[in-house]
Amino acid sequence: MNIGVFASGRGSNFQAILDAIHQRILTASVSLLLSNKSDAGALEIARAHHIPAVHVSQKQFSDEPSFAAAMVRLLKEHDVQIIALAGYLKKIPIPVVREYRNRILNIHPALLPSFGGHGMYGHFVHEAVIASGAKISGATVHLVDEEYDRGPIVIQKAVPVEKGDTPETLAAKVLRVEHEIFPLALQAFAENRVIINERSAWIQ
User: Fold this and answer.
1) Whether the predicted pLDDT of 198 surpasses 80
2) Which of 78, 115, 103 is nearest to 196 (CA)?
3) CATH 3.40.50.170 residue spans of the chain
4) Is-cis flag, bond preceding 113, omega within 30?
C-alpha cells in the first residue's frame, strides 16, 4: 500500500509512520510527502529518507479547482492509494476528497466528536479540553469527508486529564497516543480490515 502523507509542521506523526514501517508494524511505503509549508520539518524528514517531497500551496494557483487538480495529479503520479493527514492544517479540497473517498485518514488530538471542527487544532484543542473540565482526552483517527472532523471514526485511544495538566503537558500525552494509533489504523487499511458505512467505520 502506497501512502501519501500530508503535513504542515515538524512531522512527528510522519516520522512515527516511517518508524512503524521500519519496525514492520506497518506493511506499506510512503510514496509522497506533500506540505503546504515550504519550511515544514516534514519535508526535510522526507528528503532524508529519499521520499519525494513536494511543497504545494493554494497560493501557487489562481483558483481552488486548479489547486485541487494539481494535487490529484501529484497523487496519481506517485501512485498514492491512501492519504494520511499527519498534522496537515488546511482543509482538503472537495474534488480530492471525492477522488479519494474513504481513503483519506486524519489524526485529531481529541476524542471526536468532542473538541473538533473549524479552528480546533493544536494547542487550541488542548486549551479547550482543559477549560471544559473534561477528565479524559485522547486521539482519534477518522476518515475525511467534506466537513471538518466529521468523517467516520476508525480508532480512538484515551488519556487522563490530570490535575495540574497544562495544554503543553496534555499535548505531549496525546501526541504519544497519536504516534501509536495512526500506524495501527493505516495497517488495518493495508490488510483490508476496515468496514465503512455512511456514518461509521470499524476494524475487523
Assistant:
1) no
2) 103
3) 1-75, 101-204
4) yes
- Cell numbers 494509533 correspond to 181
> CA–CA separation, 108 vs 91, rounded Å?
13
Q: Looking at domain 1-75, what is its CATH homologous superfamily? A: Formyl transferase, N-terminal domain (3.40.50.170)
The pLDDT tens digits for 136-165 are 999 999 999 999 899 999 999 999 999 999
Query: Which sign does the torsion angle of CA 41, 158, 91, 71 carry?
Result: positive
Checking if the pLDDT of 199 tops 90, the result is: no
Which of 22, 55, 78, 108 is labelled catalytic? 108
pLDDT tens, 77-122? 999 999 999 999 999 999 999 999 999 999 999 999 999 998 999 9
Return the C-alpha cell found at 75. Answer: 497523487
Q: What is the pLDDT of residues 29-55, one digit of tens each?
A: 999 999 999 999 999 999 999 999 999
Q: Does 118 qualify as catalytic in the annotation?
A: no
**CATH: 3.40.50.170, 3.30.1330.10, 3.90.1300.10, 3.40.50.720. Which one for 101-204?**
3.40.50.170
CA distances from 7 to 67, 88, 107, 168, 197 (A): 17, 4, 11, 20, 27
Please tell me the distance from the alpha carbon of residue 144 to that of residue 104, in angstroms, as a whole number: 5
